[in-house]
């Protein structure tokens, strides 16, 4: 049942990512450059969705706790974006603030490692969950 639930969550997230997915024909990045806003970019390999489930779980927790936190899922097939951020490994999380990368996490991690990374990079120390 848990595997089925995760599958549906992943399918829903992929559907949502299609709404904010960045087309290679576009010239602007898939996020705003507001210097006060932190944005999470998740570079995902659609061939390894099951192995990436801890990332999706942690990102869901993040969005459930912070409605204003923008998460954008970028598929590995979007070569222009993958190359522009010099992504070498999937999955990869980047936290962007303005034009600066504030944090990066790559490779297969467990939920606790991903959650700790997100808390450390996104939240001030007095707001960590």
UniProtKB/TrEMBL annotation:
Keywords: Signal
Signal peptide positions on this chain: 1-25
Alphabetized SUPFAM superfamilies for the sequence: Thioredoxin-like
Protein's name according to its UniProt entry: Thioredoxin family protein
Organism: Thalassorhabdus alkalitolerans
